[in-house]
Amino acid sequence: MKKILLFFMILIAIPCGMVLVASLFFEEITIGGGDSLKKNYMGKSILIEMDGLYKSIDVEEYVLGVLPGTISPDYAQEALKTQAILIRTNVLKEMLEKNTSDAADLSYEYLTVEDRKMLFGELHYEKNERCFERAVAQTAGEVIKKEDTLIMALYHEVSIGKTASAKDILGEDISYLQSVDSSQDVEAKRYMNIVTYSFAELKEKLQVDGSLQENKTAEGQQNNPNDSRIDIAVTESTQDGFVKQLTAGEKTLTGEEAMQQLGLSSTNFYVEEMDGGVRFVCLGKGNCLGVSLYGANVLALQGKKYEEIIRYYYKDVSVVKYNSV
């Protein structure tokens, strides 16, 4: 009987021992939850509407729901950690400045678990969720400040090979938003984006009449006015090619307005006329301010830690726990 009892004790002890040993090397399976997000909650809540009901969730849970909609799960863990800190900084800054805890007042879109399952697909959900949860848990409470003030933690998908300065884009010199080299970005698939419009489509998009020309065909018939060209040109830009002003017919737009109305990937673009229309050749994706997420991933793959990545893209800032701000 004793031998049987000893046998069963050994059977139980072996797998337990294996888990214990493995937990020394793999954080995900540490007994007690490892990087469990709940034990890293900040204790600061956000009120959010879900299925017609209001629910109070911790800031860290909110960050977890925002993160997948802003960065690829295929990026290196240090890049995901970087982005988690940027989102947390922006969320807390917005809550503070707007004096709100209502998610409806915040700029981000929160993805529920169901949303995330749809985004990733059932096959990849568990793996991706673990990556994002680890990034949030391992940076829990960390934010970026400059002289005791939460910064505008701006970021973009791909730069033009270097980031832009706030003075160029916003017209304001912000000490931590200076141009830095991000030359690895030119290798990104989305570094160059081309958008093509016929003149008729441009007139509809920009709500302009264009320059209707009375050109005649060989048979003496007038061309279709809908095919008439529009005089469109970049009339002001920065030294690095960020468009400040675009004219289309008699209409003048800022680079930001042109980007939004024409669905361009950035304000860094030039215009090429082609038969029956124009094409916009855009460099970079996003506002090109602050952290390039593509560049951050390259730095992470090179062995850089998230603190190094943040301090590279933002000048003279500190990464601190929120309760010390």
Question: Layout of SSEs?
Answer:
Elements: H1 2-23, E1 45-50, E2 53-58, H2 59-66, H3 77-98, H4 113-120, H5 122-137, E3 142-146, E4 149-150, E5 155-156, H6 166-169, E6 192-198, H7 199-206, E7 232-237, E8 243-248, E9 251-254, H8 255-262, E10 269-274, E11 277-283, E12 291-292, H9 293-301, H10 306-313, E13 318-321
Give helix and strand order, one letter per element, not per position. HEEHHHHEEEHEHEEEHEEEHHE
Characterize the overall form: globular
Percent helix range? 25-40%
Distance between the termini: 64 Å
For the biggest β-sheet, the strand order reads 4-3-13
The overall pLDDT, averaged over residues, is 87
- What does the largest sheet look like? 3 strands, antiparallel
Q: How much strand?
A: 15-25%
Counted beta strands? 13
Number of helical stretches of at least 4 residues: 10
Cα radius of gyration in angstroms: 26 Å
Content-based structural category: alpha+beta
Give the low-confidence spans.
Answer: 2-16, 18-34, 212-223
Q: Please, could you describe this protein's structure?
A:
The chain is 35% helix and 19% strand. It has ten helices and 13 strands. Strands 4-3-13 form a three-stranded antiparallel beta sheet. Strands 6-11-10 form a three-stranded antiparallel beta sheet. The protein has a three-stranded antiparallel beta sheet with strand order 7-8-9. Strand 10 (269-274) and strand 11 (277-283) form a beta hairpin. Helix 2 crosses helix 3 and helix 4 crosses helix 5. The relative contact order is 0.14.
